[in-house]
Amino acid sequence: MPDMEVVTYRPKPQEYAWTFGGVRPVRTIRPGTVLQVWTEDAFGGRVRGPDDLVSRVIEFPFVNPLTGPFYVEGAAPGDTLAVHFVSITPSRDYAASSTIPFFGALTGTGPGHTATLQDPLDERIWMYEVDKANWTVTYQASRGDYRVALPMDPMHGTVGVAPAAFEARSSLVPDAHGGNMDTPEMRAGVTCYLGVNVEGALLSLGDGHCRQGEGESCGVAVEAAMDTVLIVDLVKGVGTPWPRLENDDYIMSTGSARPLEDAFRISQVDLVGWLTEQYGLEALDAYQLITQVGEAPVANVCDPNYTFVSKVRKRYLPQVAAYGGTHARLRELAAAYRAAAS
Amino acid sequence: MPDMEVVTYRPKPQEYAWTFGGVRPVRTIRPGTVLQVWTEDAFGGRVRGPDDLVSRVIEFPFVNPLTGPFYVEGAAPGDTLAVHFVSITPSRDYAASSTIPFFGALTGTGPGHTATLQDPLDERIWMYEVDKANWTVTYQASRGDYRVALPMDPMHGTVGVAPAAFEARSSLVPDAHGGNMDTPEMRAGVTCYLGVNVEGALLSLGDGHCRQGEGESCGVAVEAAMDTVLIVDLVKGVGTPWPRLENDDYIMSTGSARPLEDAFRISQVDLVGWLTEQYGLEALDAYQLITQVGEAPVANVCDPNYTFVSKVRKRYLPQVAAYGGTHARLRELAAAYRAAAS
Amino acid sequence: MPDMEVVTYRPKPQEYAWTFGGVRPVRTIRPGTVLQVWTEDAFGGRVRGPDDLVSRVIEFPFVNPLTGPFYVEGAAPGDTLAVHFVSITPSRDYAASSTIPFFGALTGTGPGHTATLQDPLDERIWMYEVDKANWTVTYQASRGDYRVALPMDPMHGTVGVAPAAFEARSSLVPDAHGGNMDTPEMRAGVTCYLGVNVEGALLSLGDGHCRQGEGESCGVAVEAAMDTVLIVDLVKGVGTPWPRLENDDYIMSTGSARPLEDAFRISQVDLVGWLTEQYGLEALDAYQLITQVGEAPVANVCDPNYTFVSKVRKRYLPQVAAYGGTHARLRELAAAYRAAAS
Amino acid sequence: MPDMEVVTYRPKPQEYAWTFGGVRPVRTIRPGTVLQVWTEDAFGGRVRGPDDLVSRVIEFPFVNPLTGPFYVEGAAPGDTLAVHFVSITPSRDYAASSTIPFFGALTGTGPGHTATLQDPLDERIWMYEVDKANWTVTYQASRGDYRVALPMDPMHGTVGVAPAAFEARSSLVPDAHGGNMDTPEMRAGVTCYLGVNVEGALLSLGDGHCRQGEGESCGVAVEAAMDTVLIVDLVKGVGTPWPRLENDDYIMSTGSARPLEDAFRISQVDLVGWLTEQYGLEALDAYQLITQVGEAPVANVCDPNYTFVSKVRKRYLPQVAAYGGTHARLRELAAAYRAAAS
User: Fold this and answer.
1) Which end of chain B is more exposed for a tag (fewer CB within 10 A), N or C?
2) Per-residue pLDDT averaged across B193-198, rounded?
């Protein structure tokens, strides 16, 4: 890999970060670096079987540990960090999900949001077998004997940089800095654009999911530790107000807020902004086009902010290379890395 | 068509309905009837060019005219109406969209909802060419010369029955009776299940769209009059709390409410209910499974209630024929109709 | 009472209305008429003791019966109905409240709104002694022996006219036509302004409360049948977009919507509109003044739409008589009525 | 003042804090200390006349400077800090308010929340004369010549401690740690209870308002620098999940969240919790009592989280001294301080 700098990092338990912002960097890297990292699962690896109830084995706030932050040389407020996911691979042969009392879309939550006086739902663990040969995870009902193998579709729920305004935000929170967006779109092959708020950007990630439905309804996906390869690049002098994603077929904007319509509105207004700034469409023309061709897969309806993704197929857009062709360039770098690695 | 009753109906302008409920039926039909109907577009056919601004040519509340209602013999509260869409075909060679002052997801709305003191967005019309040979509609930017042909994907924004509790609801409103849900899933090949609230059910439909993005962001899709063929059937003694849909690959539940998370919650709780009632899954097992495999395409984020669709692939579910195999039966009837018609 | 027309009306059980709109008038009255009416409680009079659980004694949708509608001669769309409450007096020596499964602010609700998978709260009745001599109602805890006499402050939860757009709305719903707003401000001494949507306006009322806290948290106030005297007047040629109230000290605007901030926004934008139309303030000046002196008692956070009241003391405003001095005139009429009646 | 420790502190400009958490303490104080502090206004003192538009004179995020944090000896997670306001006095003879583009309840906001495509409202400053002799502030319309003297009612919009979970939150944000709640109830005579999350609690305050309406609709009150005297005390071993207030007549719970109904729910559930923990009422009995006697003045509908206050008159409650009589004790200390100071 002649033109590539490759950095490998596996955090020790005492090196996890629990916030974006307010934490010292674990490594300094240069733009263009290939990062080979390991991320622990959202349970801190403590849920290994059906008796490991979350309320028993996890002490709040030590949930959703992050790998990072990485200080990116030259990154400054007003720039955009481009994070390309080369591969995301479960590192164990099991994964876990659960209900957690007063957490999730279909329960009152407390004490911070939809507080009610009702009793919580039953707390329960679902263990999944990870079959890397067939690239499946197997769901097994807890009552009755229904089983089904589901296609694996690994992703990172949590990716972000240090926030603006001197804030430090819990790894459970998604917002303009990224964070716990929990969108299935954060899979291998995607480039994620994050606006830089502080010197060095301070990139962190974690919360691997073997797969996840849209909305992450019960609040917990098929959680797994991950071996992940990403390329971190920098676009100087171009800002990004909310996290954006690009893959070979789509450009996508995210929004994270409550109520859920505000997450939708943010992602749509950001997509309109992207189309006016980089694709030459007038704002109402962009609004009209998105109305007819936009897709809008909801990401999470369970976290402190809800997240929406608004996306549009590139083939319906003027033929422009967003962010100066960053995605295509990182795709090539990824191919070179894979070729060299094999 | 030996076993099929076919009824053809094209409303005269004075026969349109503007509400679900509170209107006399235009026809009485038997369960199993094939209905060949024509529906006017949401503009009442008055937007024919870029100068036909909605605020100029349409007098509120004469917007979104409905074809119907149809009285279905034998339908009674507690039953379910099954409406299978055989075909939906634009009946003109143009379609139209627009911005409408204080209506849509990306503007303050008034006076009934997100009221603000800001000026409205510019009011503008986009005309679309309908090419039935290539099955496309062509978008043309209003500023600049960007044009693109988009695949046609015709659907009905508005399908429903008379509501419960003696209410009559505007054709602009989606709720438990169906109505203006504006989901792209209401396309040919789908069976829509609607809970019956009054004797005869009183089915109406309208608001054809040549295509629509998820969320229908500006509030107006590619609006068109439609020639539509549907089969109307009845499932006795089985209730349906919120409109459900089924196609060959998916079952889907809808929810309509504000804020948007409540629309999501309703559709998810309904899907959990469907899986426990007809598929034999325990409630938390259903919740867990949906969390990992559910898809949740938002329908509209612009109408008086917002609408979500929650769906799951049948291949991930226990092998059960929902509603006693109604969808498969109506698929066969539709095939027989098409064979006879050609 | 030489200049006064007095109409007395007590509905028979089969004469109750359950909707605003879609119902024939029970009486025709002239503007200026004094109406002496009786209204049944929201339970239809069926909750008389702690064992009369709502889910047992009430059959949905026969809840919240209305007295009316009254056809007001000369009332036409674009006019405003002015309803002045002269007196509201509990007609029995008891009143009742309850929890109702999946209804209220501090529980998931279903199936129409904040749907969750949790169990409902316990269903329970609280009976209140009504002491008209001391003008109190007595609360008695259901567990333990805590008792406290509370000041009586009688009001009508539900007051409204037929809605626009050919709709008929359940008596449980508040919206632009009024309806189930559940604000404690609807007490004797207030004038309520309602925009007329149909010929005759079709005024109905019900849902008397001996008292109610702001938000009506559990969804059920101290419910009572009422003997109520009101004066119904008409302001020709002046529209009212959302229900407004006026008493000797305040003008008030209401808004009903979900989420709750939209109810707040509607009431605030309406109050700004009122100040610009009738008080000569420019819109941003009105916005600024309300920001510093506005009071905003939440009405209900439990009904299908939530309701806010935004109010401002007249003494902080330019000295103008709203609606041409209607409130002062009706106050004089009420005084004359009381003098003649005693 | 024999038994009283009095600490006087006036921050230098470089000593302001812009977050709760993530900042070093400026002083260490003992429980029971009387603090005499000065707080700058939310504009950092830069708005002195009608031409000092916020977008021109303030550089984000240097808005809403805080005085503090104060490290309270012995304060540890699980304790409650009791902050009693002895006096709040405007320190200048003017105060200011403004509209701020895309901020406030009656505008789309951006980019973080209710994002729309509309133009912002006009940006404008309103200067208020502060008359300490008559204890009024004078409003002057910006268009036309309407003027009115308004009663002064000084309060602090922002009071809080360091948050939990290693977070640092902007001084603009209200949440469980307190912060920018913007409730007019935070006036002299009130005791504010704050749950301690970190060693020393780290109390900060700022954002003085000469007065403010409920909802703080345009987002900016009558902003002023303040000379404030407070007594800081500690209740060991008693937790407080959300900020609570107590004055001579009321106990009050706060909630801060979006949508606004969640802020209401949090404050109501907290009040139910307070009544069950300290007043001996069973939960549903508390829910019922609050439903009938609760008051719920909305605090802000403009900040990143909206804030509600739910309150109940002590005279309707069992005769209990909350928090072991802390409020009465601090009232006596305040009286002693005032006697000694005069």
Assistant:
1) C
2) 98
Q: Which chain B residues are Cβ-neighbours of A42 within 8 angstroms? A: none
pLDDT tens string B224-266: 999 999 999 999 999 999 999 999 999 999 999 999 999 999 9
Give percent of chain B above pLDDT 90.
Answer: 97
Q: Do C106 and D287 touch (CB under 8 A)?
A: yes
Bridge pairing between strands C33-39 and C6-9: parallel
3-state SS assignment for residue B274: helix
Q: Are strands C136-140 and C125-131 parallel, antiparallel or unpaired?
A: antiparallel
Query: What's the rounded Cα separation, in Å, for the pair C269 and C264?
Result: 9
Q: State how far the Cα of D139 lies from the Cα of C142, in Å rounded to an integer.
A: 50
Of A212, A265, A306, the CB nearest to B261: A306
Distance CA B154, CA B186 (A): 8
Rounded to an integer, the average pLDDT of B74-98 is 98
Strands D191-195 and D66-72: unpaired
Is the pLDDT assigned to residue C1 strictly greater than 70? no
Question: Please, what is the end-to-end C-alpha distance for chain A in angstroms?
Answer: 11
Whether the per-residue pLDDT at B2 is higher than 60: the answer is no
Q: Which of B100, B284, B308, B314 to mutate to test the interface with A (most CBs of A within 10 A)?
A: B284
Assessment of whether the complete model's pTM goes beyond 0.95: yes
Q: Which domains does chain A have, with CATH numbers?
A: 6-341 (2.60.120.580)
Query: How many whole angstroms separate alpha carbon C46 and alpha carbon A264?
Result: 45
In a mutational test of the C interface, the residue from D109, D298, D303 whose CB has the highest number of chain C CBs within 10 Å is: D298
pLDDT in tens, D46-57: 999 999 999 999
- Is the Cβ pair C115, B266 closer than 8 Å? yes
Indicate yes or no: CB of D107 within 8 angstroms of CB of B120: no
pLDDT for the residue numbered D14: 94
Helix axes D283-293, D260-278, angle to 10 degrees: 120
Helix (H, G, I), strand (E, B) or coil at B146: coil
Q: Measure CB to CB from residue A19 to each of D117, D166, D259 and give the nearest one.
A: D166
Closest C-alpha among B289, B269, A114, B285 to residue C115: B269
Classify the complex by whether its ipTM is higher than 0.90, answering yes or no.
yes
CB contact under 8 A, B117 and D108: no
**Cβ–Cβ contact C189 with B under 8 A:** no
Dist CA B312 CA C44 (whole Å): 43
pLDDT digits 0-9 by tens, C45-59: 999 999 999 999 999
Residue from D23, D26, D32, D267 nearest D162 by CA: D23
B7-16: b or e for each residue (b if 16 or more CB lie within 10 Å)?
Answer: eeeebeeeeb
Position C342 scores a pLDDT of 82
Residue D138's identity, in one-letter code, is T
Interface residue D324 vs chain C (CB under 8 A):
no
Contacts of C114 in chain A (CB under 8 A): 114
pLDDT, residue A111, reads 65
- Amino acid found at B153: D
Mean pLDDT in residue range B278-306: 98
Mutation target vs C (from A103, A109, A118, A301; most C CBs, 10 A cutoff): A118
Enter the DSSP assignment of D13.
G
- B245's CB contacts (< 8 A; 6+ apart) are B183, B185, B186, B190, B191, B192, B193, B251, B252, B254, B309, B311
Among left, alpha and beta (phi > 0; psi -120 to 50; other), residue B269 is alpha
Question: C4: pLDDT confidence band, cut at 50, 70 and 90?
Answer: confident
- Chain C residue numbers touching A119 (CB-CB < 8 A): 118-119
Nearest Cα of chain B lies from the Cα of C108 at a distance, in angstroms, of 10
pLDDT value at residue C180 = 98
